Amino acid sequence: MIWNEEAECMSREDIKEIQLKKLQNAVKKAYENVPYYNKKYTKLGVFPEDIGTLEDIAKLPFTTKDDLRESYPFGMFAVPPKKIVEVHSSSGTTGKPVVSGYTRKDLDNWSELMARGLNMMGVGEDDIIQNTHGYGLFTGGFGIHYGAQKVGSIVVPISTGQTRRQIEIMKDFGTTAMIFTPSYGLYLAEVAKEEGIDPKSIGLKAIGFGAEMWTEEMRKKIQDQFRAPAFNIYGLTELMGPGVAVECSSQNGLHISEDYFLPEIIDPNNGNKLDEGQKGELILTNLEREGMPIIRFRTKDITALHYEKCDCGRCFVKMDRITGRTDDMIKVKGVAIFPSQIEKTLLKIDNVEPHYQIIVSRPHLLDEIEVKVEASPDIFFDEVKEMVNIKKKIEDYIENEIGLRVKVSLIEPKSIPRSEGKAVRVIDKRDLH
Ligand code: DLL
């Protein structure tokens, strides 16, 4: 059974007709109610009336994470604050986070979209969904939660961490569907085995995983460990959260709900549109958002679109799994991190230089970050106590900025290789591509 057959199995003509109507409306609302769009469109001399066809979207400028950051916290909202009922937030590139605001209707739409996603994974009212995503400003917890309730399953809002308790609950409650980041899934399986529980014996029906990049080898490992199919869930805070696109039983791409989102693929170097099947940067327009209209958002995620009909019967376009980003954002334990956040923190601390390198690895299935920081020439490496104090201070400051505890190593001045072009700030040893 398809959750919303009328929507998900529409003809291409109907999809286009609905998209055009909604796009015209979204652009008009953004122009009329959000000073950011109003100023930008006026300056460029493009107006809502100029959108006569779907292709006309190319006349509109892109919106970036930095644009949203500059409107921090509520500057992108298109409705008065009293109509906003929930906010979520994610990291910004240079400090300020991005805030996403939802009206009651936006939350209803989010539930619908995530319900479609869970239905694609074969999850419904007979299921018990254990949601290991964090409940808080991160969209993962609440987004999955809303969808799970909408399809009528029992949702276990256990949130992140407490790995041994997670396993106990899976067993005791008879969890049938797990939601996790791929790295956490593998870790869960390992801890279960340590506890003498074979993850296969839990009897999972489906796994939903996302929020960070993964490889087919990782999927295979997760599926083998739990003996259950694993489906990719994609989304981002700016557009909504999880549920923008989800994988169906074919497991070869994610359906984007095109009655809510208009996807484009561009060449990230010149902004030109790329054709079906060509890899480039994904641009997304939210066609329905009341609280915060998002027009032509540069996701920086690399993928390609495919329009041929899918075996599952759904007609919405499919995107490939994300294979990279055009910027230096990394996701660690599901948390988005920019090197600039580390840099900003280092600049606040005496005795260290803003020369650093971030090393991300996955030594025991869980992500670990080590930040190597150059000490200033005037501190003495034989002053053990002083070194320990500085190291701890940096760790505390970084934790305060990114929300994760990292390991800091202080190294000799000038020991990080200098580069003439872009400095290599991140060394990702996880092999995610
Ligand atoms: O990660 C939303 C989410 C929550 C998706 C739970 C899936 C499950 P942000 O924290 O704003 O939102 O991060 C968005 O994460 O631009 C991608 O780079 C990356 N990302 C999200 N899902 C996937 C995925 C949530 N399935 C950013 N595969 C996006 C690869 C993903 N990367």
Automatic annotation (TrEMBL):
Q: Which residues form the AMP-dependent ligase C-terminal domain?
A: 334-430
Q: Which UniProt keywords apply?
A: Ligase, Nucleotide-binding
Q: Which residues form the AMP-dependent synthetase/ligase domain?
A: 81-284
Gene3D superfamilies, per database record: 3.30.300.30, N-terminal domain of ligase-like
Q: Indicate whether Nucleotide-binding appears among the record's keywords.
A: yes
Pfam families reported in the protein's UniProt record: AMP-binding, AMP-binding_C_2
Pathway it belongs to? Aromatic compound metabolism
Q: Which InterPro entries match?
A: Adenylate-forming_Reductase, AMP-bd_C_sf, AMP-dep_Lig_C, AMP-dep_synth/lig_dom, ANL_N_sf, PA_CoA_ligase
One example of a Gene Ontology biological process annotation: phenylacetate catabolic process
**UniProt GO molecular function:** nucleotide binding; phenylacetate-CoA ligase activity
Per UniProt, subunit arrangement is:
Monomer.
The name this protein goes by in its record: Phenylacetate--CoA ligase
